[in-house]
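Hi support team,

I've been running sequence recovery on a batch of backbones for a student project. Most finish fine, but this one hangs at about 90% for roughly twenty minutes before it completes. I'm not sure whether the input is malformed or the queue is just slow. I've pasted the structure tokens below so you can try to reproduce it. Let me know if you need the job ID as well.

Thanks,
M.K.
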């Protein structure tokens, strides 16, 4: 397969992906599309096939350059879901764009594995999970068996923005994500 043919297929795939994303955004009423995507969508209004094709070619080149420079990024549903889960425990309303065009996924509970755990001077525990999230105990409840690397950790949303953290099936303690 020639380089030209591969580039053509990649360009067509990029056009389709961007068009689908833009269509989903348009359906939700979002109007803050990057200029490169707006130019691509404007090509649909051209009736004559050769001019429309030239418009699409130019728009795809613009998008390719914007992607290469990092001015435009793409994210698929799987990546959005991963990002939502990694952000569990933080209040990040700016991540609402991840739910456009689809039913928002509500994550109320997550299970993870402790990477490290240590007790602070005030007796509370700090637990770092394998994914890098750090949770700090915020109440004075005792954890009977000390958390350690490899411990199973279940974190659940509680009332008023707080969280419960359970280590190895023990009684839950209140916690807050600190990174």
């Amino acid at each position: 397969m020639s380089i030209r043919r591969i580039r053509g297929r990649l360009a067509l795939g990029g056009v389709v992906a961007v068009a689908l994303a833009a269509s989903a955004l348009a359906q939700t009423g979002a109007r803050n599309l990057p200029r490169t995507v707006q130019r691509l969508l404007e090509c649909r209004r051209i009736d004559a096939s050769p001019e429309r094709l030239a418009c699409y070619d130019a728009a795809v080149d613009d998008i390719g350059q914007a992607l290469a420079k990092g001015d435009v990024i793409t994210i698929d549903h799987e990546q959005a879901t991963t990002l939502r889960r990694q952000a569990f425990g933080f209040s990040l309303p700016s991540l609402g764009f991840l739910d456009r065009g689809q039913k928002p996924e509500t994550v109320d509970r997550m299970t993870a594995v402790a990477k490290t755990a240590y007790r602070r001077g005030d007796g509370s525990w700090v637990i770092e999970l394998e994914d890098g999230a750090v949770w700090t105990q915020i109440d004075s409840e005792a954890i009977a068996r000390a958390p350690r690397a490899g411990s199973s950790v279940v974190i659940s949303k509680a009332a008023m923005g707080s969280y419960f953290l359970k280590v190895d099936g023990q009684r839950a303690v209140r916690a807050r994500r600190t990174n």
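--
Follow-up from support: It reproduced on our side and the slowdown came from queue contention, not your input. The longest strand covers residues 109-119. No action needed from you.
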